[in-house]
Design a protein that fits this description.
Distance between the termini: 27 Å
Number of strands: 18
Structural class: alpha+beta
Bound molecules: zinc ion
Order of helices and strands: EHHHEEEEHEEEEEHHEHHEEEEHEEE
Strand content: 15-25%
Shape: globular
Radius of gyration: 23 Å
Low-confidence stretches: 189-194
Helix content: 25-40%
């Protein structure tokens, strides 16, 4: 397994280039979706195309013709689609739910020919030729950019340009791997279970549909409100009992299902985005098997939402090169998530409030739960690494991404936000 690191960088994009970048992303998504269209087959996974060469031979000329993208960007778009189709086929083979990959989120993959990284600026291909942009780095030195992108110890692999609507900003996530003096990739162990990982823990609940270990809350209020509205309307129509009301009831049911799916899709996209923004490799949920027992106050539509959310995230994460894992959920909501404490007691928790009976720390209960989900994965993985015979692999670090920093076995470490 290679040692990989990602450096996040915020671009300073002059106004005159912004439209070029937006148009580049639009055309990149177009190519990825065209490739997905061509490679996916709904009837049989044996008929899906998962070879990059086959897809490129079939699509490259047409996509170059139809877009203003450079050769490398078209190839990366096809590669992205192949990657997603391949993961889809894998899921399909295992009997899991799967669909033709669809690319909707703003993101463009750059290889080392379409983007060049200098000490203080980046040069990149757009639909309108190459542009140069400065970037903002955090004040703390060495920054991940200096440590990995500019260092001879690491080699550039690929990078993804993303746009954040909330801040109207453009970000590069630059992926590198460690190399030795001959430029060969440094391998640590041979199993997939080694190598550094950054984890995003997610807790699911009734008050907040989802909470991440980074402290982002997805409130359940709006979801509950609309489910309640749909129920009210349904009850009204059922009382009328006419044929017209019956037909309206069927239409309402259809609309409600479509609405619920759409809502959970949005949350799932945001969860994946949260993990991307924090450079996570793994998104971790608590296993849902006994969810009814653990959350006696949850209604059927909550349970439905949890299952769908995990499913949608599992479906979307591979497209962004992230894995999804589940951990044993016991006591994640009763345990103090401070690494120097970890005291577990059911009286620690009182509804939404968590107060540790041992160390006295107070925290939102769901946020505490999300950190514990991440920490449980960390311990599970460390345990696995220790019992693995591969030398050196036990040192492979795992960090849980929390608000403003990282948690690992040694405690909390703040990080400079980029
Ligand atoms: Zn405590």
């Amino acid at each position: 397994m290679e040692v990989r690191r990602t450096a996040p960088v915020k671009l300073v994009v002059p106004d005159e280039y912004r439209d070029d970048l937006h148009e580049t992303a639009e055309q990149f998504l177009y190519c990825a979706n065209e490739a997905s269209d061509y490679c996916w087959d709904n009837t049989d996974y044996e008929d899906c195309i998962t070879s990059n060469v086959t897809a490129r031979d079939a699509l490259y000329d047409r996509l170059r013709e139809e877009t203003d993208l450079t050769a490398n960007l078209v190839q990366e778009a096809i590669r992205r689609a192949i990657h997603a189709v391949d993961s889809g086929v894998d899921r399909w083979k295992k009997g899991k739910r799967t669909n033709k990959p669809e690319f909707t989120s703003w993101s463009v993959v750059y290889d080392k020919r379409s983007a060049t990284f200098y000490r203080n600026e980046i040069s990149l291909s757009t639909v309108n030729g190459r542009i140069e942009c400065d970037f903002e780095l955090p004040a703390d030195s060495p920054t991940p950019y200096e440590e990995y992108v500019l260092s001879d110890d690491y080699e550039f692999r690929t990078s993804t340009l993303q746009y954040d609507q909330a801040t109207d900003g453009f970000y590069f996530h630059i992926k590198t791997r460690k190399v030795d003096t001959d430029g060969e990739a440094v391998e640590i162990g041979s199993s997939d279970d080694t190598g550094h990982q950054t984890v995003l823990g997610i807790d699911l609940g009734v008050n907040s549909l989802a909470v991440s270990s980074t402290g982002t809350f997805w409130s359940g209020d709006e979801y509950d409100h609309w489910i309640h509205e749909f129920e009210k309307r349904r009850a009204e129509m059922q009382q009328r009992g006419t044929q017209a009301a019956h037909n309206a009831l069927l239409r309402l049911g259809k609309r409600e299902r479509a609405w619920r799916k759409q809502y959970i899709h949005t949350v799932a996209n945001e969860v994946v985005e949260e993990a991307v923004v924090h450079d996570c490799d793994v998104i971790v949920f608590a296993d849902l098997t006994d969810i009814r027992g653990r959350l006696p106050h949850a209604d059927w539509h909550h349970i439905w939402a949890f299952r769908r959310l995990v499913e949608y995230v599992e479906y979307k994460a591979p497209e962004r090169s992230m894995a999804v894992e589940q951990v044993e959920p016991a006591h994640t909501s009763q345990r103090c998530s401070r690494t120097d404490c970890g005291f577990t007691h059911e009286d620690n928790r009182d509804g939404e409030q968590f107060q540790c009976l041992n160390c006295g720390c107070e925290i939102n209960a769901d946020y505490d739960g999300a950190k514990n989900v991440g920490l449980r994965y960390l311990r599970k993985r460390q345990h696995r690494l220790r019992s693995s015979p591969t030398p050196g692999s036990a040192d492979a670090p795992v960090d849980v991404r929390v608000n403003g920093g990282m948690l690992n076995g040694d405690g909390y470490r703040p990080t400079a936000e980029s």
